[in-house]
Design goal:
The complex is a heterodimer of chains A (306) and B (291). Chain A is an all-alpha fold. Chain A is built from 14 helices and no strands. In chain B, helix 1 crosses helix 2, helix 2 runs parallel beside helix 5 and helix 6 crosses helix 7. The longest helix of chain B is centred in the last third of the chain and has 38 residues. Classes of the chains: A mainly alpha (306), B mainly alpha (291). The interface between A and B is large, with 58 and 52 residues. Chain B: It is found in: Cell membrane.
Chain lengths: 306, 291
């Protein structure tokens, strides 16, 4: 188990390293990094001191090491669009807003998808099952930004129940969280359904029924515990798609999190902030995947003892 | 996606019961996506680019508008229907070329990795892991910031998002195939490795690749739409569908049709592509049915 975890951590770190190389190389793709990383009206002195600080007069690999060294200390330079802001500090300030939205989205997906998937499996072929399948098809095919706009139209404009955009109260976070969760609900419900169907067909379930264990006990105690392993593996993918969702949905709802910052920074050609945001996203993503791996170890004894 | 219970009858879903061919998704795909993509310039009633301030914000027909502008017009008086029809070509081009990049890169690497084994296999599988661990959105953000968004950058992002799935799946199949009799006999007969790979092994993985590619169409279109919605896809004035939705997002309270219909086009296209992919998988890939 220790070996397994060490290997997972090592491969996460390696992936982060690759991302840092990509981000570094991209700042050189656009021509001189001086143009990408300094404001247009920088003086010659600023340019000179920038070149010295980041070692831009050295060979490429040395520049990368300088970049990596600075990055490890959280130094990605100064924002161009928001003058005076430290790029990574600025991004980190926005992180809680994004995590809050993502957490709520995960909560919504689990609370809706698990019961829906279980019901669809237990009452296979019933209207509940058909409903779940239509829901799954729609969920996978509906663009989340469009759903967000439609939600605003229905719940904010027509019904006037919830605010259209911005932050502040809990009510502000409901619509964006639903828009992010929508796709996960369909994926997670389908996965739960198929893994539940498979387990319900197993010999030990038949045995339990033959023994006279009540149907409620069979479903909730015997079947669900085993069926839950498969949806759990999905949580790694969930993290990625919530991350992607947050970039899009924060823009729709003007939710001032990391995704919103990323898009604003790109519009303002603020490369230091873009670099910081990408690395921050990547770290969150790797960490959440590690947590999933840990949960997996806890749930599945084959890995624990393997 | 298909039903996955081992004992389920080979899932006749609600649309394939009526007929063997999934006519509804094929028809929808043709009407909403493929015919507009190729014939927009002949069937679109108006010019998608030229503003017509005399016809600003016409509502759709049945909502107080006329058949002249069946889906309404935007703030510059441009016909929404014409813009959707013209946008289809770009959505089709980006998703098809992006998938083609993913298929060619992924299949080739998967074939060689599975056949050659050794260090090359290890390298490819590491790259697959990293690629799967990197949300495509991050690459899209980085590319947009570094070189600006363009047709090419979107194709690169789509190809990058998909190649690893092909590489992993093809490699797994090649690992099984390389030990089979026909490969051993070809080797004995003196066939070169290249010939064995591309003449003998490749045809055996074609079904898998076709099924996977069809299932990726929806993902590719969705990715393209998200990028253009964010303004990091194909730049203006090209009327890609994501951009059309984004055009109307600030006016949803009053002029809902500007965003609504382009989004509906995305929904219908992705939905039919997904249904078609599921159907193909059930027909062509009996093994995946049982997983």
């Amino acid at each position: 188990m220790l070996l397994y975890l060490t290997r997972r951590i090592a491969s996460s770190l390696f992936a982060l390293l690759v991302i840092s190389v990509i981000v570094f190389l991209l700042s050189h793709l656009s021509g001189s990094p001086v143009d990408a990383l300094l404001p247009d009206d920088a003086t010659q002195e600023q340019v000179d001191s920038f070149i010295r600080e980041w070692g831009l007069d050295k060979p490429l690999w040395q520049q990368y090491l300088t970049f990596l060294g600075n990055a490890l200390q959280g130094d990605f330079g100064t924002s161009l669009k928001w003058p005076g802001e430290d790029a990574m500090g600025f991004v980190l300030d926005r992180m809680p807003a994004t995590l809050k939205l993502g957490g709520l989205a995960i909560l919504i997906s689990v609370v809706i998808a698990l019961p829906l998937g279980i019901a669809a499996a237990v009452y296979k072929g019933s209207p509940i099952d058909s409903l779940a399948q239509v829901f799954a098809l729609l969920g996978q095919s509906m663009p989340n930004f469009w759903l967000g706009i439609i939600l605003i139209w229905v719940f904010s404009v027509w019904l006037g129940w919830l605010p259209t955009s911005g932050t502040g109260t809990f009510a502000h976070s409901i619509l964006p969280a639903i828009a992010i969760a929508w796709f996960q609900v369909s994926a997670l419900a389908r996965l739960t359904r198929s893994s539940m169907l498979e387990v319900l067909d197993a010999e030990y379930i038949k045995l339990a029924r033959v023994k006279g264990v009540s149907e409620t006990q069979v479903i909730w105690k015997h079947a669900l515990r085993n069926a839950a392993v498969v949806p759990l593996t999905y949580f790694g993918i969930l993290a990625a798609s919530i991350l992607t969702g947050s970039v899009v949905i924060e823009t729709v709802f003007s939710w001032p999190g990391m995704g919103w910052v990323a898009i604003e920074a790109i519009r303002g050609r603020d490369f230091p902030v873009v670099q910081a945001v990408i690395i921050a996203y990547a770290v969150i993503y790797m960490l959440s995947n590690l947590v999933v791996d840990l949960l997996y170890v806890v749930v599945d004894p084959r890995i624990r003892h393997g | 996606m298909a039903e996955t219970s081992p004992n389920a009858p080979i899932a006749p879903t609600f649309w394939s019961k009526a007929s063997d061919l999934p006519l509804i998704p094929i028809g929808l795909l043709l009407i909403v996506f493929i015919i507009p993509a190729f014939f927009a310039q002949w069937i679109a009633p108006h010019d998608p680019y030229v503003p017509n301030l005399g016809a600003r914000l016409q509502p759709p027909v049945f909502f107080g508008g006329t058949w002249e502008y069946a889906l309404g017009t935007d703030r510059l008086g441009r016909d929404i229907l014409s813009r959707i029809l013209h946008g289809a070509w770009y959505v089709l081009a980006v998703s098809m070329i992006g998938i083609a990049v993913g298929v060619v890169v992924g299949t080739t690497l998967g074939l060689v990795a599975g056949y050659a084994r050794g260090w090359f296999d290890g390298l490819v599988m590491r790259l697959v892991d990293i690629s799967l661990a990197l949300p495509a959105m991050l690459l899209a953000l980085a590319l947009a910031a570094a070189i600006g968004a363009s047709f090419l950058s979107v194709v690169v992002v789509v190809g990058f998002a998909l190649w690893a799935y092909f590489a992993r799946q093809v490699r797994a199949e090649v690992l099984l195939l390389r030990n089979s009799d026909f490969v051993a006999r070809s080797q004995v007969a003196g066939a070169s490795h290249v010939r064995i790979l591309f003449r003998h092994i490749l045809p055996n993985v074609t079904n898998t690749v076709v099924v996977l590619a069809t299932l990726q169409v929806g993902i590719a279109i969705m990715l393209d739409a998200s990028l253009s919605f964010l303004g990091i896809g194909i730049p203006r004035p090209t009327p890609t569908w994501g951009l059309l939705v984004s055009d109307g997002r600030d006016f949803i309270a009053t002029d809902w049709w500007i965003s609504f219909f382009p989004g509906l086009a995305i929904l219908l296209t992705v939905m039919s592509a997904n249904m078609l992919g599921d159907w193909l998988r059930e027909r062509l890939d009996p093994r995946q049915r049982q997983i």
